[in-house]
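Per your request, structure below.
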């Protein structure tokens, strides 16, 4: 499917939860988080049926996000259900990696083959400061497990102030090269201010070629991370919601005053 700017829209990002076991400073407030009530969260059946329709309409790439997707109960079964949908050429997950050592083998067996792991620094103290509650060793252990079970490629998402010349970014780049991973450097974003940039080593952030829609955990399909626009798939119906969201996809992101990174999928 093509939007009004002749961009082929074929990438669906699915936030399966707004919960997370970390509290990264650039993503979630430390306290005062308003979470989606459990009875409003999309069921696995709704997610799978919506994905089937999206694939039938031409979507080929699917990525599971959160919050932290590995805190969603039964996530391995959801991966298995999505991986069995014919027509998906690229199926991956973005995770903070802290729980990956417990899930890597089961996720791989269930059909997930690609993962992106958030890693902003290799300094344990700084990692704890950024995540407020996280342990760097958990992520490194998770990456080791993921590599051993066969995930390929494994990409590292590193948030930077400006670019990959920063000391923490250079350390992540060297770590990636040493372990056969791919490092991607994401300029720090601000939804309220509309601040965003092109991902170094990736495709994100380039509005002129943006090919994605984002499904929130409570069923709002969004045309852009930096937009307050969204369409309820339960109210409109799955196919109509996709049609409307693509129709209203903006030429470029502006601001988002109604959402946060953790409940849209980053």
């Amino acid at each position: 499917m093509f939007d009004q700017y002749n961009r082929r829209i074929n990438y669906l990002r699915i936030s399966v939860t707004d919960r997370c076991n970390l509290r990264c400073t650039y993503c979630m407030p430390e306290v005062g988080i308003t979470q989606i009530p459990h009875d409003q969260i999309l069921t696995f059946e709704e997610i799978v049926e919506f994905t089937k329709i999206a694939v039938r309409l031409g979507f080929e790439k699917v990525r599971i996000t959160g919050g932290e997707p590995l805190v969603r109960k039964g996530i391995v079964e959801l991966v298995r259900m999505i991986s069995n949908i014919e027509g998906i050429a690229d199926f991956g997950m973005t995770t903070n990696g802290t729980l990956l050592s417990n899930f890597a083998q089961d996720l791989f067996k269930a059909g997930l083959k690609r993962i992106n792991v958030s890693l902003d620094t290799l300094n344990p103290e700084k990692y704890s400061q950024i995540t407020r509650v996280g342990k760097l060793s958990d992520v490194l252990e998770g990456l080791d497990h993921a590599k051993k079970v066969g995930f390929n490629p494994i990409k590292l998402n590193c948030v930077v102030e400006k670019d990959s010349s920063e000391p923490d970014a250079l350390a992540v780049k060297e770590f990636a090269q040493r372990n056969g991973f791919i490092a991607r450097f994401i300029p720090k974003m601000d939804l309220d201010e509309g601040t965003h940039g092109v991902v170094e080593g990736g495709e994100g952030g380039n509005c002129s070629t943006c090919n994605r829609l984002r499904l929130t955990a409570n069923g709002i399909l969004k045309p852009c991370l930096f937009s307050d626009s969204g369409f309820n798939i339960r109210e409109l119906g799955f196919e109509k919601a996709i049609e409307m969201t693509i129709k209203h996809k903006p030429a470029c992101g502006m601001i988002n005053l109604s959402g946060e990174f953790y409940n849209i999928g980053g």
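The domain at 11-264 is CATH 3.20.20.70 (TIM Barrel).

Regards,
D.
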